[in-house]
Write a structure and sequence with these properties.
Layout lengths: L1 H9 L2 H4 L1 H16 L4 H37 L1 H12 L15
């Protein structure tokens, strides 16, 4: 019994306080053990930020492509330019030379 008392007396006084012990346990639980611990929350927030950046990128690409599509559907010169550049189409009396940069 004396050994137990000696061990208990060697414990610092703040660690004997039940409120401090409860607060320490709660903090440990929230940071490491819980299903939605702070570490996992940080990783999830990082993932959300990356996905929002991707969303902004794809939204801007969609708007750019939709304006290009509108011009292709409504402008004869844009259609001809697109067909020549992308599909290498040509008129009957023309020759097409492809120059590739290395």
């Amino acid at each position: 019994m004396d050994r137990i008392r000696n061990v208990i007396n060697k414990i610092p006084r703040p660690l004997k306080n039940k409120y401090i012990l409860t607060l320490m346990f709660f903090t440990f639980w929230i940071i490491f053990i819980d299903d939605y611990n702070l570490i996992k929350q940080h990783q999830l927030q990082k993932n959300v930020n990356e996905l929002e950046n991707q969303k902004e990128y794809y939204t801007s690409e969609i708007s750019k492509d939709s304006t290009e599509l509108y011009h292709l559907q409504n402008t004869k010169q844009e259609q001809e330019k697109f067909a020549r550049e992308k599909f290498l189409m040509k008129k009957d009396n023309e020759d097409v030379f492809i120059i590739r940069d290395k």
